[in-house]
Amino acid sequence: RAKHSGRSTFVWYTSEMDAEAQKRKEIEAGLVKALKFDQFELVYQPQFSLHDNRLKGYEALIRWEHPTKGTISPDVFISVAEDTGLIEDIGDWVLRRACQEAATWEDKSLRVAVNFSPAQFRAGETQKKVAKAIAESGLDPRRLEIEITESLLIADTDAVVETLEDIHALGVTIAMDDFGTGYSSLSYLSRFPFDKIKIDRSFIRTLGRDIGTDAIVTSIIGLGRSLNVQITAEGVESQEQVTLLRAAGCDLVQGYLFGRPGAVRQGISTMSAAEAPLSRPHPDAADQT
Ligand code: C2E
Ligand code: MG
Ligand code: MG
Ligand code: MG
């Protein structure tokens, strides 16, 4: 077979690579179609305040509704979109759709958080696109939040600071996503106009079961307080985690315990009693009540 394909025996050494490259090519072709035939959708995951137990907003998360393969997760296709430049069009779509949908929500106090890839920033024009999405949807800019990861901050720092400040000046809030997983230079935190830091769910996962993790999470929350930046815990799945986060002074929570990404639940404004230990105090949290 190697002979017929006109390739050397290297085929045997690279077949795995070829398969991976082939798969990415297929995803790329699929993404072009997905854009053309409107196969993307946004699902929303609620974010609650631990101070008053109230719903504060939703994070918009993209899904690819493939006609034959079903729902495809962003973990499968975002990196392909980034490598091929398709992220620009997909990101534009996400931004516009999230603003449009949030503008129709009954509760006009709720925020919508949109994930941005570093590649979207490099494409430039970010501030203009954000301003346009706001203007076209009629969404109050203070209801829009942009989530970025630390990887954005590594290259071209001055340009990124400027872009983020332009976006911030529109009234849009900025959150640092997946905090603690990247290069985490603490100096970033004071240089960039962040309103929020989201502690990566890998830390939340071992909270209460690992002294090191507990110390890190407590420190990040303390850092947030001194920098006057709100702290969100991502990936909260258990009541025990909520109790610890509440005791540490964490501001916001998001995770399967409070709701999986899905449709926006109109009419819900507080977390349910089962998730709100303030109304059902845990012995360890006694000093918090
Ligand atoms: P992220 O921004 O950190 O989003 C949180 C991810 O954690 C989501 O995965 C969410 O479903 C998942 N999650 C939430 N709560 C829990 C929990 O309690 N336990 C566990 N195990 N997981 C939880 P999802 O939706 O698959 O998204 C994965 C990543 O893809 C996102 O991570 C984000 O980096 C990226 N992404 C999603 N939508 C977009 C988008 O519109 N644009 C861009 N550029 N990236 C996106
Ligand atoms: Mg996010
Ligand atoms: Mg995250
Ligand atoms: Mg992530």
From TrEMBL:
Record domain EAL: where: 24-275
Domain of life: Bacteria
Protein name per the record: EAL domain-containing protein
Organism of this sequence: Pannonibacter tanglangensis
